[in-house]
Amino acid sequence: MKTKQYSAKIFEIELENEDGFISFFDKNYLFFQNNLIIIHGQESDSIKNYLDSKNLKYVFNLEIPVQKKQKTNLESINPIKTLEEKKEEPKIEPIEKPKTNLKVLDKLIRSGQEVKLDGDLLLLNRVNSGGSIIINGTLIVTQVVDGSIRCNGDFMMLQASSKANIVFHDVEVDNKFLQDKLNRIELINNEIVITPALKETSWV
Amino acid sequence: MGIVIAVISGKGGVGKTTTTANIGLGIAQNDKKCVVVDFDIGQRNLDMLLGLENRVVYDMVHVMDDDIKLKQALIKSKMSPNLSFLAASQTKDKSVLDSDKISKLINELKDEFDFVILDAPAGIESGYEHTIEFADRALVVVNPEVSSIRDSDRAIGILDSKSKKVKDGQEVDKFLIINRIDAKMVQSGEMLNSDDILEILSIPLIGKIPEDKGIIDASNQGKPIILDDNSKAGQAYKRVASRICGEKVDFVDVESHKESFIQKVKGIFK
Asked: Looking at the predicted complex, does its ipTM rise above 0.90?
C-alpha cells in the first residue's frame, strides 16, 4: 500500500448568497488558485460551473480535521490554519470600524474648572494652577500642566511644572521627572514608567 | 452707546479701585465722557480716591429703587468735567442687587456716557457676578504673585461662563493690567515676569504699572496719581487710558531696573 502526505492550503467559505459569493470570487479568485476551497452550504450547478470556469479546485461540505490539531500535534496543519485566518480577513475588515471615544479640547483649564471624562482626552491647551482633570482614559496634554491630574488610562503624555499634582492609577507621580519636556507615563507590570519624549514635539 | 468695562481681579488689595479711579480720569482727560461706578456695595471707597469723600448724598441703590433720578445721584468730578461718579451704598449690602435693576441702570448710563467703568468687589460672589453680568470688556488687574494670578484666573473663568454676552454667544474682551511691578525684584527673579503671567492667563496685555510709593499719598489726598506728571505709575495709567480709547501707544519697559551712578556708589557703601 502506498500513502502520500501533503500539506495543502485550504480555504473554508460559507455559502449563503450566490451572487455575493460570485462577486467576491470575481475580485479575489487569483488568491485561491493554489488553494483547495471548502464550501459549506447548498451545492448548485451555477456555482460549480463558475468555479470550473475559473479553474479552481473545490469541495462541498467537507469536514477537515482542523479541530483535532491540538491532539495530533501535526505541525503541517499549523500553516493551513494561519493561512485560513489571513485569507478570511479581507472579508471582515470593511465591516468593523475602529471604536474610539477620543475627545479633543482646545480650552484653557482655569483655576476652579474641572474636566471629568470617561474616555480619552487630547487637550491642546494649558491646565492652570487650581484647574483639574479627572479622566478614566488616556490623556495627552500638549502644553504645560500647573494644576492637578487624576488619570486611570493606559498612558498619559504631558509636561508638568513643579506646582502640578499628577496622580496616575492612584499613585502620585514625582513631577521632578516631568519637567522640561513632554513625558510618557505608563504602567508596566505595576510600575510607573516615565519615558521622556526624546525629540522636541512640534504640534500642528 | 457706551462701552461697559468691568475692572476685576478676584483677589483683594491688588489695586482694582486705584486702577478704576486713574483710568476713569485718564479716559476723561482723553475727551471722552466717562462714569465710574463703585459696585462694592457696603464698602464704599472709590469716592475717597477721587476726592469726593463727603459729597455723596445719593447712591446707586437709591437710583435702582427709583427713589431719585440718575442725574441727582451722579457726582461730577472737580478734576475733569468729563468724569462722573456713582457711589455704592454703605447702608445696604449686596443682596439688594438684582439683574433687572442693574440692567436698567447700566443701560441708562450707556446712553449718557462713552465709557462706563465698574469697580468690582473682591472675591467671586454674587456682587462680583452682578458686576460682570452686563460688561462688554473686562480689565483684569493682577499683581505679579501666584495667589493674585490664580484668583484672577478663577475670576476670568467665571466671567467666561456667567456674563450675559457669553450667554448670548459672544465673547467678553479681556485685557490684563499687571500692577505693582517692582523692576528690581523682577530682575532678581523674585517676582514673576510679565511673559509668565501672560502665558498663564492667556489674555492680551493692556498695561504694566510699576510699583509707586506715591500712590498711597495720592489716595489719601484724593488726587489720583495720573495727575502727577513725574510719577511712573501715573504715566503708565495714562498710557493704559489712551489704549482703552483706541490709540496705539507703545509699551514702555518697566521691568528692567537701571541704577544711576549715585545709587551704585551708595550701593558700595551699604
From this structure: no
